Amino acid sequence: MFIGEYQHTIDSKGRVILPAKFREELGEKFVVTKGLDHCLFVYPNEEWSNLEKKLRTLPLTSRDARAFIRFFFAGAAECGVDKQGRILIPANLRQHAGLNRDLAIIGVSTRVEIWDRDAWDAYNNESSLDQDKIVEHMAELGI
Question: Is 0.70 topped by the overall pTM?
Answer without folding.
Answer: yes
